[in-house]
Specification:
Oligomer: single chain
Number of strands: 24
Distance between the termini: 188 Å
Number of helices: 26
Shape: elongated
Structural class: alpha+beta
Length: 840
C-alpha cells in the first residue's frame, strides 16, 4: 500500500501541538501564589472573624431579661398617677400584642424575620445594591434580631467591627431563643419617643390604652416611630407621623398582609391621639415631691430601675379638683377691670414668642400664684398638694418652700392662748379703734387698719364677745386679747401647735406678720378639730414595695400618732368660734355664694396688710385644707383683695370634693363642758328676742344673733341678754361684764331687795314664769323658751342706772299665783307658807 502523501495545506505535527496554559510554568506559579494568598486570606479572615465571634460569645444572654422597669406611683385608691424611671417601660408578653402590630413591624423592619437565622444575607445584598444606586447609605440590612442585640447589649457606633459583633450576637440569640421570644424582647425594649420604652408604654402614652387594645392604624403609627422616634412623634408632628404611618400600610400591602382596598381605607383614616396620664404626670408638684422622698428612702438608682410600686396618700380626684379650681378662680381675678399685673395668658404669650428655648433661659413668671394643701387630721397624710398654677412655668413648690405672712388667719392661736388662761367665747372684749403704735403694721402713726374684716367700711362695735371678735375677724379686739394673754404665751402656743418658723417678738405677730410655711400652718390648724392635738408629721408616701411585692418602706405606726399641744377645752372653744366664721362671720360667702356643703367644721379668712397675701384655712372632722394666693415677690394683689372673695371659692370647691371621699362627722365637745345658748352681742344667756335686722338683697330680715357654746362649769351663767331684753329697762354692759366675771356684789355699787331680805343669799333664777304661792326667794323671771341649763354664781340687781340710757334698770319678776278658795269658810283648810330655806 503506497504511503499517504501530505497535502501542502496539512499542518505538521509540530504546528498542531499547542501547550495548555495550566501546563505553563508561570501560570502554575501564579496559581500557587493565588492559592497561597487565598489560604492566607482565609486564615486571616478566620482569625479576624473568630476574634469578633469570640467577642460576641462574651456577652451573657441572660442580660436580655434585664429590662429597666419604671417605678409606678399610685394614689390612695391604688390608681396610677405617675412613674419614676430612666426608661419608661411597661413590659408586655407576646400573646398580649395584637397580630396586626407584629405584621406592621415585620413588613417595615424585617420582612424575612421568620426565615433567616439572625442575619439576612439577601437583605444585606439588596441593601448594598440600593445604596450603590442611591450613591449613599439609604437602607440598612439589620434584622430585628440584630437590632435587639444592639439595644440589649449596648453596641453603639457605625463601624464594621460593631456590625460583625452584632451579627454574631444575633446568630447566638436565634440559636437560644424562639422567634416569639425575640419579638417579645424587641417590643419591650425598643424606644418609641416621648420617653416611652416598649410598645405598651407607647400605647399608653400616645393613645391612653394598653398595647393589646391598639387598633391597626394605631399600631402602624407606633411602628412608624422606630426610624425617628422624636421627630415623628404624633403629639408633636402629627403630619409627619401620619405620613410614616401610611408608609407602614404601603409595606404591609406590598408584603400581601393587607389588600389594596384595605390599604386605601386605612391610609384615609385621620390620625387620632389620646395621651395617657403617664405622658404628663412626670411634671407636677406631687410627682416631684414623691420622687424626692422615694430617692431618700431607697436611693436614686433603685427608684429609677427597680420596678417599685409606690403607694401614696394622694387622692387623685381631690387633687384634680384643687388644680382646676386654682386655675379657674385665679384666671377670673386676672379678668377684673383695672387688674395691673402680668396674667397667666400674658406669660404664655411671652413663651410662644420666644419659641423653643431651654427652660433655664425662660424668664421667671410674675403672674398671680396660688397653692393648696389638704391633710388628714388624724394621721397627717397629704391628700392633695398644689404648689403653684403651672409646674412647667415654675417648679417652686409654695406649699413647702415658701414662707408667707398668714395675716389675720393667725388669730385663732391668739384666742386659743386666751381661752387656755380662763377667757371663753362669751367673754367681753373691746372693739374700739386702737393706736397703730401698739402694733406697728404699715407705719407707726394713725389708727390701726381693719383690713382683716374682709369688707370695706368696717364698723367698730364696742363691747362684743370674744366669739364675735374672732368670727368677724376684728383686728383691734384681737390685739387687746393678745396683749392680755401675753405675746410670749401666744408665740409658745403657736410653737406647740407645730409652727416651727420663728415668730417676731412684736405685737404685729398677733395679726400674722410673722411668715410661716403652708405645711406647718396647715398641721397647726388641726388642733381645733382634734381637740388640742396635731399629727406628729406630715407624709405623702404610705409604703413602697419591690417587684416581688415585698415591703421595702412603710410609714411606722408611731409616725401616725398625734401630739398633745393645747388644752382640749380651749381648742374646742376656738372651734366653736371658727364655726361662726362660716355661719355668720367673714366666711359667710362659702355657703351662701360658693355652694359649700353643710358639715360641722370651721375656718378662718386671712388677709395680710396691704392685701399682699390671701389665705383661707379650714377643716371638718376628717381633713384640714389651706389655700393661698399672692405674688412670689410680695406686692398688693389689688386694693380690696379680701380672701373671702379670692381664695374662699377655691377652698369651698376642694372641701366639697373631700366630703364624698372623707365623710365628715360631728365634732363632739370634750367631757365636762356645759352647753348654753348665748347672745352674740352681749355674751349673756340668749332670749327669744335676740335678733338683729340685716339688709340682704334689698330686704330687711331678722337674723338670730345667738349661738350654742360649751363652757367650763365655772363659766356657766344665768343672766339673760340685756341688749335684746323684753319690756322695761335692761342692765348695762358694764354691770353684766362685772357679774360675768364673778365680781362681789359690793363692787357693783348697790344691793338689791333680796340681799336685804336674806343677807348672804342671791336671787334664784326660775325655769318657769310663774311660782305657786309666795315668792320667798325674790326669784328672777326668765323669758319663755329660753331654758336655763345651769345656775350661775351671781344674779342681776334692780335699780342700777343703764350707762347708755341713764334709766333705772328693772329686773322682771315672776307672777305669784295664790290658792283658789272655794266653798264655805268653816270648811277651809288654811295652809301656812313654807319657811324660808337656808343653805348652809
Amino acid at each position: 500500500m503506497p504511503p499517504r502523501t501530505r497535502s501542502k495545506h496539512t499542518p505538521t505535527k509540530v504546528s498542531l501541538y499547542k501547550e495548555r496554559i495550566w501546563h505553563r510554568r508561570w501560570f502554575q506559579k501564579a496559581v500557587l501564589i493565588l492559592v497561597g494568598c487565598c489560604v492566607l486570606g482565609l486564615v486571616v479572615t478566620y482569625l479576624f472573624i473568630r476574634h469578633y465571634s469570640a467577642e460576641a460569645a462574651k456577652f451573657d444572654l441572660n442580660d436580655i431579661y434585664k429590662l429597666e422597669s419604671a417605678s409606678v406611683i399610685y394614689d390612695r385608691n391604688r390608681e396610677e398617677i405617675g412613674r419614676i424611671f430612666v426608661e419608661n417601660r411597661r413590659p408586655v408578653t407576646f400573646d398580649e400584642v395584637p397580630f396586626h402590630l407584629v405584621q406592621a413591624l415585620i413588613a417595615t423592619e424585617d420582612s424575612r424575620f421568620f426565615e433567616h437565622g439572625g442575619v439576612d444575607y439577601w437583605g444585606i445584598a439588596r441593601a448594598m445594591v440600593r445604596n450603590v444606586k442611591a450613591g449613599g447609605i439609604k437602607e440598612g440590612g439589620s434584622t430585628v434580631t440584630q437590632q435587639l442585640a444592639r439595644k440589649s447589649f449596648g453596641l453603639s457606633g457605625r463601624s464594621y467591627t460593631r456590625k460583625l459583633v452584632e451579627a454574631f450576637l444575633a446568630v447566638r440569640l436565634e440559636k437560644n431563643f424562639s422567634k416569639a421570644e425575640i419579638m417579645e424582647f424587641y417590643l419591650n425594649r425598643i424606644y418609641f419617643g416621648g420617653g416611652f420604652y416598649g410598645v405598651n408604654a407607647a400605647a399608653q402614652g400616645y393613645f391612653g390604652k394598653a398595647a393589646s387594645d391598639l387598633l391597626p392604624e394605631e399600631s402602624a403609627t407606633i411602628v412608624g416611630l422606630i426610624k425617628s422616634p422624636n421627630r415623628l412623634s404624633p403629639l408633636r408632628n402629627p403630619e409627619g407621623s401620619k405620613g410614616t404611618r401610611d408608609l407602614v400600610f404601603l409595606r404591609m400591602r406590598d408584603e400581601k398582609m393587607i389588600s389594596n382596598d384595605e390599604f386605601e381605607q386605612l391610609r384615609n383614616l385621620p390620625l387620632k391621639t389620646n395621651p395617657g396620664t403617664s405622658a404628663t404626670t412626670q411634671e407636677s408638684y406631687v410627682y416631684e415631691q414623691v420622687r424626692k422622698q422615694v430617692i431618700e428612702q431607697i436611693g436614686s438608682e433603685k427608684a429609677q430601675k427597680g420596678g417599685f410600686q409606690i403607694y401614696t396618700t394622694i387622692d387623685s380626684r381631690i387633687q384634680e379638683t384643687a388644680e382646676n379650681s386654682i386655675l379657674k378662680h385665679l384666671a377670673l381675678l386676672e379678668q377684673r377691670p383695672g387688674y395691673e399685673h402680668q396674667t397667666y395668658a400674658d406669660y404664655q404669650e411671652i413663651l410662644y414668642q420666644l419659641g423653643d428655648i431651654e427652660p433655664k433661659d425662660r424668664p421667671a413668671p410674675t403672674y398671680l400664684q396660688g397653692a393648696a394643701l389638704m391633710i388628714d387630721n388624724k394621721s397627717g397624710a397629704v391628700i392633695a398638694m398644689v404648689g403653684g398654677r403651672d409646674y412647667h412655668d415654675s417648679e417652686f413648690n409654695r406649699t413647702i418652700q415658701a414662707r408667707r405672712q398668714p395675716g389675720t388667719a393667725f388669730k385663732p392661736f391668739v384666742y386659743a392662748t386666751a381661752f387656755s388662761q380662763g377667757m371663753w367665747p362669751g367673754s367681753t372684749v373691746v372693739d374700739k379703734p386702737i393706736d397703730n403704735r401698739r402694733v406697728m403694721i404699715g407705719g407707726t402713726e394713725g389708727i390701726l387698719g381693719e383690713w382683716g374684716v374682709e369688707r370695706d367700711g368696717n364698723v367698730h362695735e364696742g363691747d362684743i364677745t370674744a366669739r364675735r371678735a374672732l368670727a368677724q375677724s376684728k383686728v383691734a379686739a384681737t390685739v387687746r386679747v393678745g396683749e392680755a394673754a401675753g405675746l410670749d404665751a401666744v408665740i409658745s402656743t403657736a410653737a406647740k401647735a407645730g409652727i416651727e418658723s420663728p415668730m417676731r417678738e412684736f405685737n404685729a405677730t398677733f395679726l400674722g406678720a410673722s411668715e410661716v410655711f403652708m405645711d406647718e400652718f396647715c398641721r397647726a390648724f388641726t388642733v381645733f378639730p382634734n381637740q388640742g392635738t396635731h399629727p406628729k408629721d406630715l407624709y405623702i408616701i404610705d409604703s413602697i414595695r419591690d417587684h416581688l411585692g415585698e415591703i421595702v418602706f412603710q410609714v411606722k405606726p408611731e409616725d401616725r400618732t398625734r401630739i398633745r399641744c393645747l388644752d382640749q377645752i380651749a381648742a374646742y372653744q376656738v372651734h366653736t368660734c371658727l364655726e361662726g366664721v362660716l355661719d355668720e362671720g367673714t366666711g359667710w360667702r362659702a355657703r351662701e355664694e360658693f355652694g359649700l356643703a353643710k358639715f360641722d367644721g370651721g375656718g378662718k379668712t386671712g388677709t395680710a396688710y396691704n392685701f399682699t397675701d390671701n389665705w383661707f384655712i379650714g377643716y371638718d372632722s376628717e381633713v384640714t385644707c389651706a389655700v393661698w394666693c399672692g405674688f412670689d415677690k410680695p406686692q398688693t394683689i389689688f386694693r380690696g383683695a379680701f380672701s373671702n372673695q379670692t381664695v374662699l371659692p377655691i377652698w369651698s370647691d376642694i372641701m366639697n370634693a373631700a366630703v364624698d371621699e372623707f365623710p365628715p362627722k360631728a365634732i363632739a365637745p370634750p367631757e365636762g363642758l356645759v352647753a348654753i345658748e348665748l347672745c352674740d352681742r352681749s355674751g349673756m344667756r340668749a332670749t327669744d328676742s335676740c335678733f338683729s335686722q340685716e339688709v340682704r338683697d334689698g330686704k330687711t330680715i331678722n337674723v338670730r344673733t345667738t349661738h350654742l357654746t360649751h363652757v367650763r362649769p365655772e363659766h356657766v351663767m344665768t343672766e339673760f341678754c340685756p341688749v335684746h331684753g323684753e319690756g322695761g329697762n335692761t342692765l348695762g354692759g358694764a354691770q353684766f361684764a362685772a357679774l360675768r366675771l364673778g365680781a362681789p356684789r359690793s363692787d357693783l355699787g348697790q344691793d338689791n331687795d333680796s340681799s336685804k331680805k336674806f343677807p348672804g343669799f342671791r336671787p334664784i333664777p326660775m325655769q318657769s314664769p310663774t311660782v305657786i304661792g309666795e315668792d320667798p326667794f325674790d326669784a328672777i323671771a326668765p323669758v319663755v323658751r329660753a331654758s336655763v341649763l345651769e345656775v350661775m354664781a351671781e344674779a342681776p340687781v334692780d335699780g342700777e342706772p343703764d350707762p347708755d340710757t341713764g334709766e333705772e334698770t328693772v329686773v322682771a319678776r315672776p307672777q305669784v299665783l295664790t290658792t283658789l278658795e272655794i266653798g264655805e269658810e268653816k270648811f277651809r283648810i288654811p295652809l301656812a307658807p313654807p319657811e324660808h330655806l337656808r343653805f348652809e
